[in-house]
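re: ur question from yesterday

yeah so i grabbed the chain u mentioned. its 248 aa long if i counted rite. heres the sequnce exactly as i have it in my notes:
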Amino acid sequence: MLRAVIVEDELKSRETLRGLLSRFCDDVMVCAEAGGVQSGKEAILEHQPDLVFLDIEMPDGSGFRLLERLDEINFEIIFTTAFEQFAIKAIRYAALDYLLKPIVPDELVAAVEKVRQLKQRKSNQKQIEVLLNNINPDQLESKKIVLSTSEKIHVVAMNDIIRCESDNYYTHFYFTDSTHLLISKTLKDVESLLEEGNFIRPHKSHLINTKYIRNFNREQVAILLTDGSMIPVSRRKKEKILEIINQL
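ran it thru and got these C-alpha cells back, copy pasting raw so excuse formatting
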C-alpha cells in the first residue's frame, strides 16, 4: 500500500484526483490533503507519505517552494500542472514525473506504477537538487540533468556534454572529462531534453554541443570537435549547420 498526500489548491481538483486514485489505483491510500505550501508541508511532516501529488502553482507559492522548505525528501513526487512549459522542462531535466490537468486515468496509472518500482530506492534527493537548481530560467550555464543507468543515477552539467550518439533505442553521452554513459533513451528524446542548451543535430545519429566545435571540414562535410571527434553533417542540413557555425 502506498500512502499518499495530495497538495493542490483547488478543491475540485483534489476531489477528482482522489476519485481517480480510488477507482484506478486501489493500492494508493490518500492519508491527507492540503491546499497550499504551508499546509502541504505540515501534512507531509505529520503523515510521512510514500508519495506526494504536488501542484506547481498555489496561492501561497509554488510546489518547488514547498520542497525547498523540507529538510529531507524521502518520498516520491508526481507533479500536477495545467501546463507551464518552463516548469515541465525543469521537471524533465530532473527525471521526475508529472501529470497534465485534466488528469488522464491511463497516465495516472502509469505514473503510480513507476512510483511502485522506485519505492525501494534510498532517496531521490539528487533529482530534487537538480530540479531546484534548474527552476531559475536565467541560469542556463549552470543547468544540470539527471541521467539514469541500470547501476546509478548520474547528475551531469549540460555544458559538460560534448556530444551524443544514437545507438538504436539507446544514446551514448560523451563528456569533457573523457567519461561516457550509455542511456536508455532515443536520440530524439535526448534532443528534446537538451533543446534549451547549445546543441544542434547535424546528422540523424549525432547531437553536438556547439561550444566544442573546432572547425568545419568542407571536404569531408563534417564537424571536428575539441575531443577529436569528426561528426558527419547530412547534405540536407549542411547549409543550416554552416549558418549556425558562422554565428558562433
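noticed a couple things. Residues 11-24 form the longest helix (14 residues). also Residues 203 and 236 are 9 Å apart (CA to CA).
anyway ttyl
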